[in-house]
Amino acid sequence: MPISGFPEWMPPQRMIEQRVIDRARATFELYGYAPLETRSVEPLDTLLSKGETSKEVYLLSRLQAEEGQKSDDQLGLHFDLTVPFARFVTENAGKLQFPFKRYQIQKVWRGERPQEGRYREFLQADIDVVNRGTLPFHYDTEMPLVIGDVLSGLPLPKARIQVNNRKVCEGFYRGLGLEDTAQVLRVVDKLDKIGAQKVIDQLIETAGASQKQAEACLQLAEISSEDGSFADAVRKLGVQDPLLDEGLDELLQVVETARELNPGLVVAELKIARGLDYYTGTVYETQLEGYERFGSVCSGGRYENLATVGNEKFPGVGISIGVSRMLGVLFGQNALGVSRSVPTCVVVALPNEELRRTCDRTAAALRRRGIPAEVAPTAAKFGKQIQYADKRGIPYVWFPGREGEPDTVKDIRSGEQVEADATTWEAPAADLYPVISGS
Amino acid sequence: MPISGFPEWMPPQRMIEQRVIDRARATFELYGYAPLETRSVEPLDTLLSKGETSKEVYLLSRLQAEEGQKSDDQLGLHFDLTVPFARFVTENAGKLQFPFKRYQIQKVWRGERPQEGRYREFLQADIDVVNRGTLPFHYDTEMPLVIGDVLSGLPLPKARIQVNNRKVCEGFYRGLGLEDTAQVLRVVDKLDKIGAQKVIDQLIETAGASQKQAEACLQLAEISSEDGSFADAVRKLGVQDPLLDEGLDELLQVVETARELNPGLVVAELKIARGLDYYTGTVYETQLEGYERFGSVCSGGRYENLATVGNEKFPGVGISIGVSRMLGVLFGQNALGVSRSVPTCVVVALPNEELRRTCDRTAAALRRRGIPAEVAPTAAKFGKQIQYADKRGIPYVWFPGREGEPDTVKDIRSGEQVEADATTWEAPAADLYPVISGS
């Protein structure tokens, strides 16, 4: 039986997922990110010491554990890839070259209550850069460009990366005279859910804001631009603070760099806050055009304090593609398809079982030149063997020639059948592998 | 801190692991196996109903679960990929095309006591074929050929696949007059561990064998051949049984097919038993030359009864590469290396921060043509930037030309520096990606 929150794709959907992973990985490597996998488990205290405590952790216990042994060193499944990465970096700091750029494509688990659209097991594709001491800001400008390259190479709806900077918000709130900036951020983060009036009410009730201060916070959250004009709009609100200036300068760099290298990809969106996460500066969210209501498919930000060893800090910046989440939404809307349900390009027809090894050699010759091929499962009538291919969307059936006659290959879509030699025949490039397409 | 049994590779080792996974996947797809991933968890009763009960299962519990809710539907992490696959097939039988060929490359978990060389989390790469009703035997001959193609394309020690057939053993024991064939198999399976004399003793003590019967079982286990001669050797032992004949005929097909299509890959080894697993016919184990003492790196077999729905059976045959186990052994012996620790092929040197976007464009031009490139982290002295590349094994540093001069690219291994244009320069194929090599 299916288990709520643990999605399983059928093979055609898994093919699409693999194509997404391949594209992500190839792009990450083009930018110089090194591959990493961390173990799936962390000690419970590592999991609870960072990030949101609201993330529900799955604990592990050994079925056959001796009595009384369970509580010793409790292990839990990781709920993201950033916390394990920070642990890995501090644990291996002496062996790594800094700045350290790595990507990590793995499952994560969250023991949430089952509900619509919430996964308990899902795949994330992360990149992060960390350094000892301080990390140059230009890596914050790289994150959206990498993601833009990943997503633009796939048949997906157009992606729009929304960027903000926590220093802008915190500096602005401070400059306004509000002290509990974390609480202000928490309330403003709910804007899309509860609406402007409730945000104002709650700012007044829970963050000690006056009506005027609350309205100013809301005005800040409503600012958005594809170019540097957001900075002017913020300055027009008349708030002064050095942290605000620093944040605006950083956000400008992200927006302007993207505008030059990938126009239309990035927008400054001053309501983006990223909840209670560990971010300290730049924050990213990503929406797919036409799928905005499903939320962000790719998020991240800058964190100064996630990893420390003694007095030494390892600041980082990273971004994470929610692969399962994104594909779950698109599969649910039938927005992605694939041209066949198996990798096979050619079925070698089997005239009779005595010829199986001959047919095996034909299939092997095709494979040696990179053409996915399999021999028919039984020596059924050719009509049934063609059906075997047709049901799976396999485009070609290969017929061994009888008694010295040459082999032939048939495109079962067009019916066209031509003489062919397994050591030289080429499948058209468009037919060699299954083709992924958007709707 | 490292957690016993949960290995973590450094990025160079992960690169090697990924190369193994890529090779496995590409080969599996060439043979027409479709990709599948199943969820990491199964209900506890699914995990315990099949396979060995000695496999220790990791149970999951939600940290924030309501009291009394835990026992409802206990979930455990899967301990192999065959049991979840069998569950997936029966659950989705109506949606799948049979025979169904799939591959699955995933982590599995075993809550074993920590000990040398035993992993609690490890990666497996499986292929299986299942069918409704009956599954043609020729798929049993395909398994070793696929594995042979995977492993021969990697810089690994030569692989030798050892094949046996449970019908041979069971038929032989039965023909000898022994009734508890499962117990005989269990004892004979310990041959390499406890030696011949103890096997004889235990067969007499626990399986009701006479000295003569026990010796005959041992003689069978000592038979081994690269060709069909094992069948004559078995027949010389003078035991008659129809199941024995069936098993010998099947084993001959596996050995002879491999001998013709991939000579030297497969050997009939009649002591191979595969413990208490669910296999009913062909069984496979694989040893790497020079690493025999570390045990099998790739195992599997035919199972007639793993998956059933009502009266309908879904027999299958499969084989599984123990990727973590194999690489753990080879890493431990320093038998595998990689030419650099990052994917980057070219570092674009940064004369000063004002030129960063110019350098970004150079790197982007290289990436567009598939050359992994990154811009230096800071505008340090060129010597330090070259060191950045050198420490990571990156072969090339790119220098932007000054004031209208052309760019140059330097091979920092040879010191050779030539004029180059980022839109046309090609990296030598051997330098484009990190190269994996055996010792």
UniProtKB/TrEMBL annotation, chains A, B:
Subunit structure: Homodimer.
Residue numbers binding L-histidine: D80, L81, T82, R110, Q124, D128, R274, Y278, Y279
Catalysed reaction equations from the record: tRNA(His) + L-histidine + ATP = L-histidyl-tRNA(His) + AMP + diphosphate + H(+)
Enzyme type, top EC level: ligase
Domain called Aminoacyl-transfer RNA synthetases class-II family profile: residue spans: 99-343
Annotated Gene3D superfamilies: Anticodon-binding domain, Bira Bifunctional Protein, Domain 2
Family the entry assigns: Belongs to the class-II aminoacyl-tRNA synthetase family.
A Gene Ontology molecular function term of the record: histidine-tRNA ligase activity
Keyword terms, alphabetized: Aminoacyl-tRNA synthetase, ATP-binding, Cytoplasm, Ligase, Nucleotide-binding, Protein biosynthesis
EC number of this enzyme: 6.1.1.21
Protein name in UniProt: Histidine--tRNA ligase
An example Gene Ontology CC term for this record: cytoplasm
Pfam families xref list: HGTP_anticodon (PF03129), tRNA-synt_His (PF13393)
InterPro entries: aa-tRNA-synth_II, aa-tRNA-synth_II/BPL/LPL, Anticodon-bd, Anticodon-bd_dom_sf, His-tRNA-ligase, HisRS-like_core, HisRS/HisZ
Domain of life: Bacteria
An individual GO BP term: histidyl-tRNA aminoacylation
